[in-house]
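Give me the fold.
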Amino acid sequence: MFALFLRAGGGTACACALAAAFFCAAPLAAAGKSDPALTEADGLIQDKRYGEAILILKKFAEKDNERFDAAETRIHAIFQQKNAYYALINELVDTLEDAPDQFEKIVAVTGVLKKMDIPQTDSERYFIDNIDYIALLALKRRQIDDILKEGRALLDKDDFTAAALKYESGFAIFEKEMKEASLGEAIVKGAAENRTKAALAADVVAEAAAPAASFHSALNAASPVTEAPGRLRAAAHALEDLLPELDGLIRAKANLVDAAAFFSGVRSGAEAAVKKSEQIGLFFFPTSALLIRGRPGEGGSEGILGAADALWKSIVRPFDDAYAGEAERLWKEAHAEAEREAGSRPTVKAARDFIAGPLVLAAKSALFSEAGRKPEDPAPHLIDANILRFRAMDDTLAAFDDIIGTRAYSGLQRNTRSAAVLASWKEGKIGDQSAFTEIQKDRATIQSLARTLEKDIETIDSGIAECQTRSAGAAGPDDAEPIARALNHLAAAKRLLESAGEEVFAGALDSALDLYAIANAGLEARLRSLEKDYTQTVPLMEGMEIKTEQGQEVLAHYPREANRVYNSMEDALTDSAQFAEVVYDELQKEPSRLGEYGTFRSVGDQTISLVAKVRALNDDAGNARTLSRDRYQRAESLWRSGERALEEARTALQRGGAGGARAQLDAAVSGLSESLELQENSAIRTLWTNRLEPLAAEIARLEYEEAVKEIREYINNARTRYFNGEAERAEEILVRAETRWAAVRPEPNEEITHWLTIVRGAIALREGTVIPITAPLYPQMSQLLNNAQKEYNDGAALLAARKRAEARSKMEGAQEKTREVRLLYPLNQEARLLELKIEQLLDPAQFESSFRARYNEAASGALKGSMEAYIELENLFQLRPNHPGMRATVAEAQYALGLKMRPVVKSASERAAELASSARRILVAGDPARYAEALSLARRALILDPGNSVAAQTADRLQISQSADAVLVADTAGEQDYFRAVREFQQGNGILAMSIVERLLQNPANRNNVRINALRRRIQSSL
């Protein structure tokens, strides 16, 4: 029945009525008290467990026949519901077969089936759900397609309001399903926000259509151009009323692009998150993007964005067309003015004012084209070709304005101004720096013009590139013709700009040559003056030969005077350096193109050279100023410290201490000499002559007397040590005495030398015969000697046992070891004695004969002063001390060699007394001419009798009398040379230092100078 009813024309409405009756049906209950079985059956029916319910009802009917109707009623209702369900299933199948495009009917039937309270198999449920999904999706997509087609038809009739609202209505088609899907709060919220953006944008498009139509009416009233140019200007003013709507369209487009981007990006991320039954709601997002952007490949813009674009074009195109002819005429007039030598800026201004309206629209169009565009999106093509033309006109008119101004300046003002400045400079009315500044101002204007022209050319080039790009993608002649005109405008302007640029460059070259000619002349003049002053300081710093008030010829330095010159140069140096840097900075900013001209390269190279010289002179003078100041300040400090040391030396001398006075004197000499070396000072030379030299002589005298007394004590002490067998200690004392003497006298002390010879001879004798324990080879030599002694002892025992062959072998082994020792230590006594014993033991007869010959030879040599002979004599003495004459010969040899002092016999004592008396008489007589003779007599007496006190006292007094000859310091010139020699020696220039010292010693006044002679000895020892 239900299927037939639908086929008969009841359609969806009847199906829905039947479903409503079905849904309202309730389980029947028997009148009266309810039975538990019926109650249970009703519960099963309610849970759609129809099979179980029928079994219970059947048992109930069989059990209680009186209440059979209650069970039957319920069973009938169950079957009635199932029959209705299957009738709808059959109807759905028939529709799919006969009318598959009746999506509304299919969706109505599946909706009823899904709501019927009938148990379904899995296959039934799958079938119904899929048919419902497919039909609903197809229905909604057909609705969307209808909206897109209707919207396009409205756009084709320029009904922008209706088109925008039509597209906006499509958002509701999938909105309900989207909200019912479990998409998550963030997606639903984003969908709502962007749905609102799109709706508001559609409203903006709809609302802007009416003001745009009013603007078109005003614009149409202004045509044709040639008859009513004034009304065109009025139409441009009318554009101002439309500007807020245009701004709204720009914002609306940006919002539409953002919303479309959101909707396009949602579905792929949300599809996996929703149930299959809810996925139809996901179609809300791509459909929304389609409603905003329209269908691709339909031959024109669609969607809300398409409505906005079409509305914008409807505003732009008529305005551009109306203005093109008048703008072209004005542009040609401005171009003609720019070509002339001195153009008319009012003409250019009138042309720019006229196209102000199109340019406003061009600017808005650029914003509209860029609205919402992402960096990765292709460049928009929404700007109308005529807008490019107007923009090219304005760019070229701006260039014409700059060209006219540039030519006016470079052709008239620059030449007049530069000529006046150059003339004033050449006549000396203004200085080089002022002239440079004036020309620099002029050049700043020229450079600004050049930069302006370069910027204009960059703008023109950018416009040309854009036009070329647009030309390649022009849709047809309507687009291509204005782009071609724009290219012509830009090309013409570029030619004029390049021509004007050449004129500016020529002016820049001329002014650059003038500028750097002035700069170079100024720098040269400054350099000549400064170099002249600087040259005067060279001898002041490096030194000049002068003759002092004391008659000395010295190399004098004057850093104080040089510093005054440097200070006087400071302002001029600073001014020159600053001017040089200004010139250099200006040169660095010059365009590289100027370097292509040889005249400019030559002038520029000269400028760089002069700047480098000014910098170098400024650095040199600055360093020299610092050096000169440091030198004379150091000289003054040394002068003050030298004077203080001199006063302290005088105080120390008054207290009786020559040692303390000498140390302070050395400090004074060093400080004052170094001060004179740095800065010539006549006051120091006077101080030296009048105060330092007398004080030095007094200190030398006192020091000399103290030294003579100390040396006598040293000699007496050394003699005592020597005779007590302490030769090494005696040598140490005598060396101190020698050093002390060298500090006061340049020549050696004969008495010290005499005793050193004796002491060192004794030390040498002992060192030659005995291997010291500190010797590097002492362990090896000791082992050899021990082994040799053992072999000797073994050989002697074998010989006593009459084993002569074995004894000889042992003896030869011992001899071989002693020879090894004597190879390194030829005078070793232990090895030599062992060798003599071996010879004596092996061949007594032969040894007896050779012993006498050896003795005679050793005695003869020792008495003649041979140390080697004496050592051999000592060895023979150790072997046979009682040999006839041996002891007496050894004693004589010791006296002869100074190893022992001969006992003072009466004759020697008397002779020493005579010599001492003679020396004393000469001293008492006070004849200085004979003091040297007296000193020689006293020293001879001391050799004969070292204990003669008269001889010692006389010798000391005679030496003290020579204290006046002691010299501690030279004159100022000599001391300067002395310190110069010290510096050369310290720097490793020993030969040069020695030449300075030798030259000093040629002066008789310096021959006894202790310090100069000490330096000479140091240098000699190093060479």
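The first helix runs from residue 2 to 24.
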